[in-house]
């Protein structure tokens, strides 16, 4: 199982990283340029509402049956979670604080460094934790579309031969993988948000 587990972990981590970076960057652009939000926000909402599995055949045609299509599927699920959370964080910035810094002569870059990004970090970290599960789920969903490696491939082949023991074993490994990635997310959250006082 180690080969298949390694493939799924690689796809999940790559999808998580790509989805996280794209989600934060595009949310930042939407938060600073309202014209982009007006133009593309309805499109993103419409695409987010689509069943992602229905986009699978397109990904296979565009990127093939290799690891690329699985990473793209994983990144797609992570992207929307991160984007909507980060965008909400950018819109939730304290306007009075921003205006105060402007009156004190702060530049746009200083406002971004001192106010915007710090206020968005909790939103991004929260989406990162939920995105870990989405990354694994997207990778496994992509493996269902066609491959010869990965945990999704093992479940599919075991299910086709009615090998319930193997199906349950692989599902258990998937659960352990998601728990392990969630624990990593908790550790990152504690490290990044150590300045925030815990709720008693």
How much is the average pLDDT? 79
Give the ordered list of helices and strands.
HHHHHHHH
Strand content: under 5%
Q: Helix amount, in percent?
A: over 70%
Low-confidence stretches: none
Shape: elongated
Radius of gyration: 20 Å
Q: Got a strand count?
A: 0
Describe the largest sheet. Answer: none
Distance between the termini: 43 Å
In DSSP terms (H or I, runs of 4 or more residues), the helix count works out at 8
What class would the helix/strand composition place it in?
Answer: mainly alpha
Structural description of this entry:
This protein is an all-alpha fold and 200 residues long. It has 8 helices and no strands. Helix 1 (2-32) packs antiparallel against helix 2 (34-49) and helix 6 (108-144) runs antiparallel to helix 8 (164-192).
Features of the shown structure:
mainly alpha; 200 residues; 8 helices
Structure described in brief:
The chain is mainly alpha-helical. It has helices spanning 2-32, 34-49, 56-63, 67-91, 95-103, 108-144, 151-160, 164-192. The protein contains eight helices and no strands.
List the helices and strands and how they pair.
Elements: H1 2-32, H2 34-49, H3 56-63, H4 67-91, H5 95-103, H6 108-144, H7 151-160, H8 164-192
């Amino acid at each position: 199982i180690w080969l298949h587990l390694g493939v799924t972990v690689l796809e999940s981590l790559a999808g998580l990283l790509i989805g996280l970076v794209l989600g934060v960057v595009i949310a930042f652009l939407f938060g600073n340029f309202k014209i982009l939000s007006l133009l593309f926000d309805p499109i993103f909402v419409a695409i987010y509402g689509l069943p992602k599995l229905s986009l699978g055949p397109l990904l296979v045609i565009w990127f093939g049956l290799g690891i690329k299509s699985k990473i793209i599927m994983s990144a797609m699920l992570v992207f929307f979670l991160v984007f909507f959370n980060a965008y909400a964080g950018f819109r939730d910035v304290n306007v009075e604080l921003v205006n105060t810094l402007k009156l004190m002569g702060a530049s746009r870059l200083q406002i971004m460094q001192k106010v915007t990004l710090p206020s968005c970090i909790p939103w991004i970290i929260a989406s990162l934790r939920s995105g870990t599960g989405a990354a694994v789920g997207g990778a496994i969903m992509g493996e269902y579309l066609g491959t010869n490696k990965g945990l999704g491939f093992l479940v599919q082949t075991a299910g086709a031969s009615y090998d319930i023991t193997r199906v349950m074993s692989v599902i258990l490994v998937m659960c352990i993988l998601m728990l392990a990635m969630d624990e990593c997310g908790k550790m990152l959250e504690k490290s990044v948000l150590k300045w925030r006082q815990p709720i008693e």
